[in-house]
């Protein structure tokens, strides 16, 4: 569960590592939250956050008192799970179950929006307690924060812009949730890509050191089954700065008496500094499918007024993006088939090369055997001729020649040509 602490040891007779939304929903409306928390060995406040993450409605304060008094109470239905939303609670760190489906153009709704969307929380589950991670974050020289936690919403901001960015993200995510669109970290098994963030207000060829924080997984919104990537970052301005205490500071933020240049000729340092104005970058996270759109603030805070238009734009763009993804899927499949055919042809050629080489190697080996046979016969004929000639010599001279012949034969070794032929490997044609 993102942004929730590790689950304590479970005090329960069940050995399952995950609890489904359906199971928690049934328990929530059959017993008080304190009893459920006790069953799983967690606090009721922790369990409440679990219910928020899983979008499970739970009884309001006083519900069980009314039930005990005999007042009949109704419970709201369990909202349908959106693509990319969690399906279960991982009690012991087991892999989370995530709803997923192939990208498909959302069906056009008629009439009123679905009533199955649960009551909106004050804080979107993806942003719960996110401030704590920014409080402990390190800063780049320019002032952008680099939290140690990477599994959280894609926000790239300065310390002074944290609250503004979180407030805008919360309003945007809740507006999307109100339309039935789930916002979550991407499913790691789908390998969604993240568009690079260039925080500079004006595009430039100037090199920017890649010191910005990067999330572990993209933040995405599911429009039907179509996925859009979301990045919220603070725009930077290229301004004159000074560098006291290893940090860049805007010249205008320094006392007038210290703004004078420290360099000959009045040259001033410049850097890309956070401007307190936000940019929302929405992009296609699908490999090979390029689409990106940005909404920026002209002054801090005016991006909130654009949220309805942003939601409307995503709903309108979803069918087109789904079509692009399908086109890319077909192209990729065709490319994969071509690659498979090329690999089959390459393997066939390699097999043919190996077959021809095996034939040639066998032929070379047979020629070696034949040459060995000829050499063996020549040596045997030589030894036989020496033995025959020795028989015509006197006894002492004959014995000396025969002794010498024995040493020569021992030196040459085995002259059995059949053994050499048996060692030959015929080719498998």
Helix/strand-derived category reads alpha+beta
Rounded average pLDDT: 83
Amino- and carboxy-terminal Cα gap:
61 Å
Indicate the radius of gyration in whole angstroms.
Answer: 39 Å
Largest sheet: 7 strands, mixed
Helix count? 9
User: Helices and strands, in N-to-C order?
Assistant: EHHHHEHEEEHEEEEEEHHH
Total tally of structural domains: 3
List the uncertain runs: 1-15, 111-117
Task: Please bin the fraction of helical residues.
Answer: 25-40%
Question: What fraction of the residues are assigned to beta strands by DSSP?
Answer: 5-15%
Your description of this structure?
This protein has 429 residues and is of the alpha+beta class. The protein folds into three domains: 1-61 and 73-98, no CATH class; 120-302, no CATH class; 357-422. It is 38% helix and 14% strand. The chain has helices at 21-28, 33-40, 44-53, 63-68, 130-135, 162-178, 307-390, 395-412, 417-422, and strands spanning 18-20, 88-90, 138-139, 145-146, 155-156, 182-185, 219-223, 226-242, 249-250, 269-283, 292-296. The strands form three sheets. Strands 5, 6, 7, 8, 9, 10 and 11 form a seven-stranded mixed β-sheet that branches. A two-stranded antiparallel sheet has the order 1-2. A hairpin with a 2-residue loop joins strand 7 (219-223) and strand 8 (226-242). Helix 2 (33-40) crosses helix 3. The model is unreliable at 1-15 and 111-117 (pLDDT under 50).
């Amino acid at each position: 569960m993102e942004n929730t602490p590790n689950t304590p040891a479970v005090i329960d007779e069940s050995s399952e590592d995950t609890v489904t939304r359906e199971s928690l929903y049934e328990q929530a409306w059959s017993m008080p939250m304190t009893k459920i928390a006790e069953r799983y060995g967690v606090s009721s406040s922790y369990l409440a956050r679990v219910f928020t993450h899983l979008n499970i409605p739970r009884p309001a304060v006083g519900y069980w008192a009314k039930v005990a008094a005999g007042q009949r109470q109704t419970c709201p239905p369990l909202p349908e799970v959106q693509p990319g939303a969690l399906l279960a609670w991982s009690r012991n760190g087991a892999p989370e179950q995530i709803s997923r489906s192939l990208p498909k153009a959302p069906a056009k709704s008629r009439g009123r929006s679905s009533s199955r969307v649960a009551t909106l929380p004050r804080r979107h589950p993806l942003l719960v307690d996110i401030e704590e991670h920014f409080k402990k974050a390190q800063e780049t020289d320019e002032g952008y924060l680099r939290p140690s936690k990477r599994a959280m919403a894609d926000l790239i901001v300065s310390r002074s812009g944290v609250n503004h960015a979180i407030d805008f993200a919360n309003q945007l995510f809740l507006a999307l949730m109100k339309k039935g669109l789930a916002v979550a970290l991407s499913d790691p098994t789908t390998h969604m890509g993240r568009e690079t963030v260039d925080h500079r207000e004006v595009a430039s060829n100037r090199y920017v050191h890649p010191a910005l924080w990067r999330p572990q997984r993209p933040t995405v919104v599911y429009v039907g089954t179509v996925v859009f990537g979301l990045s919220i970052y603070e725009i930077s301005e290229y301004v004159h700065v000074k560098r006291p205490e290893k940090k860049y500071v805007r010249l205008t933020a320094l006392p007038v008496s210290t703004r004078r240049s420290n360099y000959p000729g009045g040259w001033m340092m410049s850097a890309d500094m956070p401007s307190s104005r936000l940019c929302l970058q929405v992009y296609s996270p699908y490999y090979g499918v390029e689409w990106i759109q940005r909404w920026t603030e002209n002054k801090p805070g005016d991006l909130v007024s654009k949220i309805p238009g942003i939601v409307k734009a995503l709903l309108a763009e979803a069918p087109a993006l789904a079509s692009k993804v399908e086109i890319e899927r077909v192209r990729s499949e065709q490319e994969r088939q071509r690659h498979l055919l090329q690999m089959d042809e390459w393997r066939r050629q390699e097999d043919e090369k190996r077959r021809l080489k095996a034939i040639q190697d066998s032929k070379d080996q047979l020629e070696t055997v034949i040459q060995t046979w000829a050499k063996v016969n020549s040596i045997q004929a030589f030894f036989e001729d020496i033995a025959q000639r020795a028989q015509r010599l006197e006894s002492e001279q004959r014995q000396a020649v025969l002794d010498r012949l024995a040493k020569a034969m021992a030196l040459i070794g085995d002259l059995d040509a059949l053994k050499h032929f048996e060692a030959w490997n015929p080719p498998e044609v």
